[in-house]
Amino acid sequence: MIFTRSELRLIGLTVVVTAAAAVTYYAKAGGTIVPFVISGAALALLASLVGRSVEALGGRLGAGATGVVQSALGNLPELFVVLFALKSKLYEVATATIVGSVLANVLLVLGLAFIVGGAKNGVQRFELSGARRVSLMLLLSVAALVIPALTALLHTPAAGHERALSITVSILLLLLFAASLPDSIRKTEADAGAGHDEGHPGEAGWPLWLALTMLAVTGVAAAFVSDWFVAGLTPAITTLHISQAFAGLVIVAIAGNAVENVVGIQLAYHNQPDHALQVILQSPVQIVMMVAPALVLLSPLVGAAFTLVLPPLLLVALLVAVVVAVVAVQDGDSTWLEGGAMLTLYAMVATAFWWG
Amino acid sequence: MIFTRSELRLIGLTVVVTAAAAVTYYAKAGGTIVPFVISGAALALLASLVGRSVEALGGRLGAGATGVVQSALGNLPELFVVLFALKSKLYEVATATIVGSVLANVLLVLGLAFIVGGAKNGVQRFELSGARRVSLMLLLSVAALVIPALTALLHTPAAGHERALSITVSILLLLLFAASLPDSIRKTEADAGAGHDEGHPGEAGWPLWLALTMLAVTGVAAAFVSDWFVAGLTPAITTLHISQAFAGLVIVAIAGNAVENVVGIQLAYHNQPDHALQVILQSPVQIVMMVAPALVLLSPLVGAAFTLVLPPLLLVALLVAVVVAVVAVQDGDSTWLEGGAMLTLYAMVATAFWWG
Amino acid sequence: MIFTRSELRLIGLTVVVTAAAAVTYYAKAGGTIVPFVISGAALALLASLVGRSVEALGGRLGAGATGVVQSALGNLPELFVVLFALKSKLYEVATATIVGSVLANVLLVLGLAFIVGGAKNGVQRFELSGARRVSLMLLLSVAALVIPALTALLHTPAAGHERALSITVSILLLLLFAASLPDSIRKTEADAGAGHDEGHPGEAGWPLWLALTMLAVTGVAAAFVSDWFVAGLTPAITTLHISQAFAGLVIVAIAGNAVENVVGIQLAYHNQPDHALQVILQSPVQIVMMVAPALVLLSPLVGAAFTLVLPPLLLVALLVAVVVAVVAVQDGDSTWLEGGAMLTLYAMVATAFWWG
User: Fold this and answer.
1) Contact C165 B351 (CB under 8 A)
2) Best exposed site among A260, B38, B112, C30 by fewest CB in 10 Å?
3) Which of C310, C187, C318, C228 is nearest to C43 (CA)?
4) Among C323, C340, C345, whose Cβ lies nearest the Cβ of A144?
5) Hey, which residues does B124 pair with through a beta bridge?
6) For the segment B118-174, what is each residue's pLDDT rounded down to a tens digit?
7) CB–CB of A129 and C331 under 8 A?
8) CA pair distance B97, B115, nearest whole angstrom
9) C-chain residues within 8 Å CB-CB of A176?
């Protein structure tokens, strides 16, 4: 048997939900809400499968290449969604999705991991140097976003060169990200070793051909489903009377990115707080240092001019969330109360964007 | 003898000063400044006595209930003052009092504790996990205030729903605060145990009937004195040519809240830095997580609509003060120089609000 | 032989470059760029020599006086440049130079030290208490700059009293700085002891008369060269099409202040991360706590009214840089990747001010 039982269940569910999304999309059936919900669920499931395929592929290529593969391909679903949103001129959704993906990981998923881990295992302690390194990278990457947003907000002379400034910052972020890969590869190797011993969830033992096939199939499927999901977004927004910003910040962000990090919550439950932290916080680092810059450089392909200029409230929410997460992580342990506080903050930010 | 000598002195002084405040208020004697100063002194003394009664009551009810009683009743004087200020339409004073209470504890009282403790005992080290937990709660609670202030400042769509947003945030803060009580109760128990051994100041051995009577008497007296104090505020402001914001931020905040935390400075002097830190920093956490939300929900009772929307300069002063305090506390030790720096920052903030 | 070989080379080079600067200035030769570049190089070299003279003088006067001498005289070149800029009504250059000196030390020099130290010696660990103390002072001093900038930006009532507020804040900063001197003197003593044993670079063994002569000569020369440098600034800006802000933030700041801290990079290379950190971070602390306040108080001498009011983008860049540095330092170790991230952030900030 190549697939484990739980993998088979996940694949089966993904096929069914993706098929349902296809039917509702092409048959224009189910009104405005149902197709949107189904394609969102399909997207989240496909994002999980892409993640698992990338992990399996990395395992086969040798641990050294995992980091590169993971960062290049693991964020494909997220990238597709935002590209389709840009193609549909849903700029506000696109920007909010980027910020929302970071917030969802940093406050929602990390908060849930703290709660679940704390309720099951009491106070959980982190190995400090790893926790500090990833939180510093997160802080630095978010700090980079302050510059373009403020030049635009304050109408400084650079505000007239928004796109040039965004491209410069993007290239600098991508270079820094590329420079950080050797380090994360080495870390991934160490993790993988530790992971095998502890038998952590999500360890896939697929042969190379299967990993490649799964990646190709799920990647292409994610591209299609992203298109359907974005197509269903505008009617759903209208029917539900929510704002574009809320849709991107909460709904698209959770479907496109956060659900796949549920594995981090499982790790916290199984008392592996260090691994949980890496899984949950690597994701927002990759979004800011790779996905967002890639979108800036790729957006002309879909006829859009995406910049790194965030609206002030999103920027501040991002900074506050990251500072809180950094302080919460750097203290070296987590409790369910810290997790509860992070969830509360997430709920407040979401509320502030509720009104259209 | 039920009361200790120092308690008797405190009670006697409080009775005398409160009586003097009553006389000047009802007889409209003493011009514009004297009644205000006397009622402010009476308020600070009563706040101390309320605090001591609550502590004694908690000791009798069993340590488990101390946390609940303390947070429900210990902040009564502060609550009364702001309610009366709201009733008199002194909105600016009300908002500034909330922020000023946090600043006074976080910069002034903590700074003095660092200076006194450092001058007497040299570098003082904290037990890290406790220090980090309370500073994280402080950071999180203040982070929550960023959201409503910014939506209003930036005129985002949510700005039209200021009151609804404030109520949502308030309820979330109160829920989080309630969830945190079991933890602080457990901590209070441990503290109380440690406290008894070390005989820390403020340990009261009153019987239950006395604790209840003292609490009732001082609570009712605090309500009256708060009324007189607020009534004297406007004439005093006019005579002294100070701004409403300065009055609330510095004078009302210190009288209504900070003086009672002088016990924290005594603890630092007696080389109990951990206990000092908890006493001093729990207070601003309670103000942001309980008093401010309670005021939002209770303000309609006095015909006002209090929101959590802070003016930008107050918000930034609050954030800067809390970040500085968090960094100063998380480094695990304190020196008189750190304390001096915090006092300096407090003086600068006060100066910025001096001009009306 | 009084001078070492490397000192002789430095002195010789300084004499030649300073003479060349004098020639181009008085002969009005070399167009608009060459005199500016030459006087900038002369200024950087003189700043190094002033620093070395101060160090030698301190060593002779007894370690106890080093701190006082160093802070009073070591920042002379920086002070001269900004004073001449103020005299020439180049307010934007003056403000940007102050901020740029902090940024250049905190991001550029510290980042380079992390990269060089990390590439040569792998992960470098700091002694935590020293690292935390200097980073806390840095945070506190920068926090003080938030107040005047915001009162001006938000047009609060204090905005009408900009100069009075700046003077108050300046005096408070100077008092705090004076209060911190005994501590840094004690630290300098310990450092000097350690330094002798390890033979760190920059240790000068000049006799008292030589130290005094060198200081007098280099100090006077620095004043002249500052004048030439500022005189060449406006033509160079015009020819190069850069903004005043960029010129101050990057060019003047690096020439007037950052180059002398190259010794910090050498210390990191020789695996003395603690000493490197102190050298690099003391400098921005002195700039904010002494140079900037001194400029506020001295500016009337050159007919200007310098205030501590920073433009918002400079203020935010400063805050972000300092928070990043504090987090990077407080984690207790440094890697080349952290250094790379700090350099990247510096490049982004510089880019944002590129456009005039």
Assistant:
1) yes
2) C30
3) C228
4) C345
5) B334
6) 888 888 888 777 788 888 889 988 998 988 888 888 877 777 788 889 999 999 999
7) yes
8) 25
9) 340-341, 344
